[in-house]
Design brief:
single chain; elongated; 131 residues; two-stranded antiparallel ribbon; 5 helices
Length: 131
């Protein structure tokens, strides 16, 4: 039976490592999409301490652009069900929508309703300018 035992580093071996020679790198800032998803407050639930599970990169494909993305999974509240991201960060930022429920981040309505309302207001504006 082969053991994958690796003994601890001695003082001489530690001094040869990159950490000992270059020092610890600066703490990096959290990034939207790779460290946490772009989701609305409704999807996060009432608990301010949500345990977010970060899935392996490429486990899920974006439902809109069909590319691999960093997916997340969490339970929204004690009696809630598990929710997960279904679209990639780029699409969510471009369309300003929640990655889990696809509702607008500003108005809180579904994207189809938002787009229809914005389309109606732009056509009404063009009719008003024509008259």
């Amino acid at each position: 039976m082969t053991m994958n035992y690796r003994p601890a580093l001695g003082a001489e071996q530690y001094l040869q490592t990159a950490v000992a020679q270059e020092g610890l790198r600066e703490k990096r800032q959290l990034e939207l999409g790779s460290d946490f998803p772009m989701v609305c407050e409704h999807c996060l639930g009432p608990n301010p301490y949500v345990r977010m599970i970060k899935l392996r990169f490429g486990d899920k494909l974006c439902k809109m652009s069909n590319v691999a993305f960093q997916a997340f999974r969490w339970k929204a509240g004690p009696g809630g069900r598990f929710k997960e991201t279904i679209i990639c960060k780029e699409v969510a930022l471009d369309k300003n929508v929640c990655q889990a429920c696809l509702s607008d981040m500003t108005f809180g309505v579904p994207v189809g309703v938002r787009d229809a309302l914005l389309k109606n207001t732009t056509t009404e504006d063009t009719h008003a300018e024509a008259v």
